[in-house]
Structures are given as C-alpha cells and as structure tokens.
Amino acid sequence: MKLQSRLTETSKNEERAATAALELASVSYSYGQRKALDNVSFSIEPARFTVLLGLNGAGKTTLFSLVSHLFSPRAGRIRVFGQDINRNSGPALRRLGIVFQARTLDLDLSVRQNLLYHASLHGIGTRVARQRIDELLQSIDMADRIEEKVRGLSGGQVRRVEIIRALLHRPSLLLLDEATVGLDIKSRATILKDIRALVQENGISVLWATHLIDEVGQADQVLVLDKGRLVADGRVSAILSETGAETINQAFSKLTGITDMNVRGGKS
Amino acid sequence: MTDAAGTFAGSPPERSRGFTPVQYLVCLKGILLREWLRYLSQKERFVSSLVRPLLWLFIFAAGFRQVLGVSIIPPYETYVLYEVYITPGLCGMILLFSGMQSSLSMVYDREMGNMRILLVSPFPRWYLLVSKLLAGVAVSLLQVYAFLAIAWFWDVKAPLEGYLLILPALFFSGLMLGALGMLLSSLVKQLENFAGIMNFVIFPMYFASSALYPLWRVQEASPLLYKICILNPFTYAVELIRFAFYGRIEWTSLAVVLAVTLALLGGAILAYNPARGLTVRKQDMGGSQ
C-alpha cells in the first residue's frame, strides 16, 4: 500500500515534470569563486509568457547558457518538456528556440543564407526550409529583404530575423535573452506584442529575460533573479500581495533593494 | 509582424524524433556551405592564401636554390630544383595557415556569438565539430590546388597522376592541422591573443620541419634542431604529401598524421564538451552573464 502510494506520487511527479515547458531543480553555477546562479528552482507552464526579470549580471545569460546546453550546471537538473538537457540534450534542444542577447547572424551573408544555415543545423532540408523562410519573412513584411546582406539591416530587423530563425524548426519553448536591448521604443513594442501573440495563438511557451520592468504584463508569470538567486516566482498579483507593494516596480525594489531598475539597469 | 500570428498558427511545434542519416547530411552540407560562403565573402583571405606560398616559390626558392643543393633523396630519383623540393612544404603551409585561420574564425565566432548557434544545434556536438573541421579542410584543399595550378605554369611540375594521389595526403594533413586549430581555438580566450598563435605555433612548426630543407641537412647543422624536426607532426604531413606526389605512401608519416589527428580531435571535442570543457572557464560566450 505504501509502495503503491509512493508509485503514484512518483508518476505524478514525472507527469508534472513532463508537462512543464521548462523545469530547473536546484541549479547552481559559478565562475571560479563567483557564484552566478545559486540553487535556482522554478518551472514554466506550457503556452505561457514568463518574464525573467533581473539586472545585468543577475545571472540571466548564465541561466540561458545552461538551458541551451552551452555549459552544464555544477549542481541541479534542467528539463525541457521532461527531457534532461544534459542526459538527453538532442531531443531537448530540438524543442528549444533561442534568441541570444548578442547578435548572432552572419553579417556578410544574406538573410536567406543565414536562415538556411540554421535550418540545416536542425536537419531541415532546403526545400522545406525555403518554404518556411518565405512564409515567416512574409509574416514580418521582410520578404523583399531576403537576398540582402544582414549588414544592411536595421537593429530591429536583425532582431526579427533572429526570432524567425529561432522559430524555423518549430520549437515548443522559445527563450529570448534581452531581445529588445538597443532597439527603439516602436520596435520594442512590436516585438513584444508579436511574441505575446505567438504564445496566445500557437501555444508556444516563452521565457523572456529582461531588465526592463515595463515589459512585464499584468497576467505574466514573473521570475525575479537577483545576484544569482531567485527571489520571487509567481503571477504579478501574487508577487504584489506577497511583497505588499502596489506596482511591480516597487515590488522589485523591495525584493532586491534596488530603487529604480529601469534607470540603474538601463545598459544596452 | 502583427499579422505574424496568422502564419505561425499553421505551424504547431514539432515533436522530437531522432535524426535520420539524411538529416545528418543536411547538417554537414549546411556547415560546408556556410564555410564556403564565408570564404567567398572574404576575398582578401583567398588572395593572401595564394600570395603567401607564391612569394615563397617565386622569390625565396629562386634565391635559395643557389645556396642549398638538394641531393638525390627519396622520393626523388633525379636531382630536383629547389622549387620542386619545397612545393610539398608550401602545400603544407597553406593547410597550416588555413587550419589556424579557421580556428581564428572560431574564436571570432565565439566572440560574435555565432558559435552558440552551432553549439545549440540538437545534433551531437562531436558531429558538429567534425563537420566544421571538414568544412575548413574542404576550403583549404581548394586553396592548395589553386596554388599548384599557378606553380604548374611556373614550371614546377610533378607527375600528372601525383596531383590526384596527393588528395588523400592533403586531406589527412588538413584534418590534423584543422584539429590543432580547433583545439587551440578552445584555449585562446580572446581574439587579441591569437597573434601569439602565429608566432608560437605557425612559424615554429613551419621552420622546424622538412618543409624547407631535407632533414639530413638539418642533422648536419644541428642535432638538436633535427630532434625537434622529427618530433614535429608537421614534418610528417609534409613528407606524406611529398611521397604522395610520386605515388608512394610514407607509412610512418601516415601513421603519425592519423594518430596526431585523432588525439587533437579528441582533445578539441573534450574542450568543447559543456560538462568538462574548458569553455566553462570562459565567462563570456558572446554575451554578458
């Protein structure tokens, strides 16, 4: 009987792990002496927009590097739709789309060449890839720029091409690291709106890392990272009531002891 | 992008399956194509990769042949012009520079973040690195043949079939030097440090080898230098190519080149392994933490 109940419990746990789009369990990472991530645990529901909020240096990019298997955590486990990123990195990475903070398109190659290269890295043949590239570029009104070298595009256009690239292999979880950094207000708003639309209409899960508080929506799940530690995890309303703050900005100040994040963290 | 959702809506997330052999080929082809396109977009790289060995052939060899007489040593059956003697060494030099250059581009890619795109591909990492290596070798083989074509008009000729027979020798030598470059690229932290590689890797490897002078000459001049030369894997790459020109396989060289390739490649794959790799020491892989 005891065993029975333990079994059901395990299978329940597994089920929960399998349904979470992303699950981190006690993940730590350090660069030499400096701890970049300290015992971080959270999980992200599928088909939701989750904001990872933290200043520059809070550990956001380290977290992304671990989730995308560029490094392995010293301790803890990371699962993408139930697949362990270290033990089962292939299947896990196939479900991940990533937009890095640094620009990662090849400036000397054309938009099409860049996108085809990415498609081939996911084993997508030229014919299918061309079709998807055409569709996606049309959707952002950039079909006419397909032959243009990336060097000739504006910052906002580069970002959008990078987002398209991350969507080419049709991932279930999209990670974006400071996707709007360095963009003007209009491009920022468009990109944010479109990513939110992706969540709503396609059921893609999104983890949106940012240091800009105004990008947090009222219904979002918010993870607050401060000096490598996760200091808050929940819906905006829950975080507000927990901290007794009126705005998410105030809540953030209370949690991290930093007064105005948008100004202090406003490096591009 | 507002109406983007409409397009995306028809594209539900794909389920994960294993990759088919065809998909492995698609991946290799994509990596080869990118290397080739990058090479084409850098015309100065093509020109300098040709000019360097040609300078050695046209100027250095022309002057030096009066000073150094090459006696009849295998694989040569008659006296040969010094130009003919150094041609295999110059092929090796192209491969050496090219191997280092592609590692330079890996360091550059890492700084620019492009390396991340390669490494987050769901294919096994060793496969990605080997593909990258093959892509570099393919480009350097073209450089070697372009050089040999020009040398041919300069009347530096080998038996015609020799040009086909050197292909495997060039391939394995290129693989070895590319693997060396890849290992170095994982050790070098920043682009600026790369100049050191030129001085501490390329030049010593090139000069302390049989590329410019036969080893028996070196032995006469300095037993110590001779020892260094026979410990230098580049010597074996050059000899492998030299013998292949005349349809002969230098087995010792082949064994050394293959063994060194495997060791260096293993080291490079280990260095890029996320768990044990040296990359973990780097705080920066194209973004701040």
TrEMBL record, chain A:
The keyword Transmembrane helix does not apply. Residues 22-252 form the ABC transporter domain. Keywords: ATP-binding, Nodulation, Nucleotide-binding, Transport. SMART domains: AAA (SM00382). Belongs to the ABC transporter superfamily. Gene3D superfamilies: P-loop containing nucleotide triphosphate hydrolases. GO terms for molecular function: ATP binding; ATP hydrolysis activity. The keyword RNA-binding does not apply. This is ABC-2 type transport system ATP-binding protein. The lineage of its organism: Bacteria, Pseudomonadati, Pseudomonadota, Alphaproteobacteria, Hyphomicrobiales.
UniProtKB/TrEMBL annotation, chain B:
It holds the Pfam family ABC2_membrane. Keywords: Cell membrane, Membrane, Transmembrane, Transmembrane helix, Transport. One of its GO terms (cellular component) is ATP-binding cassette (ABC) transporter complex. Residues 44-275 form the ABC transmembrane type-2 domain. InterPro entries: ABC2_TM, ABC2_TM_bact-type, ABC_2_transport, Alc_ABC_transptr_permease, Nod_factor_ABC_transporter. The keyword Ribonucleoprotein does not apply. Belongs to the ABC-2 integral membrane protein family. This is Transport permease protein.
